[in-house]
Amino acid sequence: MVNENNASAVNLHVIRTSKSTKARGYVALMPAANSENHGATRPAKARAMRLANALRKQYPQAHCALVHRNAFELLIATILSAQATDVSVNKVTPELFRDFPDAASMAKATPAELEPYLRSIGLFRNKAKSISGTARMLVEEFGGKVPRTMEELIRLPGVARKTANVVLGNAFGLNEGFVVDTHIQRLAVRFGLAKKGDDVGTIERKLMALFPRERWCELSHELIWHGRAVCKARGGGCADDAICREFGVGCGRRE
Ligand code: SF4
Fold this sequence. Notes:
The model is unreliable at 1-29 and 31-35 (pLDDT under 50). The chain has one domain (1-255): Endonuclease III, domain 1. Helices cover 54% and strands 0% of the residues. By secondary structure, the chain is mostly helical.
């Protein structure tokens, strides 16, 4: 799942406005939920709640599309999902996790040894380096376990805020932030939750301010499912959808 570009579900849009340490620190220290309202007035929150309930009703089966059995597998799969579809990641991870089932075994592998498993997904050389480096850091600094804090997770190679949010929410049940992938970025604007031109950090803050914290992870899946099933990038024949009719106020494709 989720978007460093466009394809996937938890294919997250990792927040990388800059590679500088300062910027990464800034991202890590985003204000806690609701500590700033980011325009989230009471009516806006009430509207957001109606949207959340409509999405829950329409997508009761929504879940993380990346196949995983534990936090380590989800972390690695999410790193691999950047600029790749969840489907393509799910095709390579069974063999990868069969041969490297945990951080200790993956840490012993060089990127070159991991590359053959990843050739069918985009940016496979960089991703081999990232998961090799992540596995090594997990072993050397975290006892082989996946850490449970944003600050620790975003230190891992290939991990930024979106990936960390996916892991925290889905593996540990911790709603630290709101996953913003390409679908959520698009739908936030179409549903009038954010403005056109908002960057992913701004969108995340706005969503965090609008929706109750306990719904963030669930909502990320429901929005992604809606983006895949109905409110697709190019639109088309979708404006009679009930959620679109009530909430698609920011979409130029509606009549
Ligand atoms: S018209 Fe289609 S693309 Fe636009 S908000 Fe509605 S469902 Fe989404």
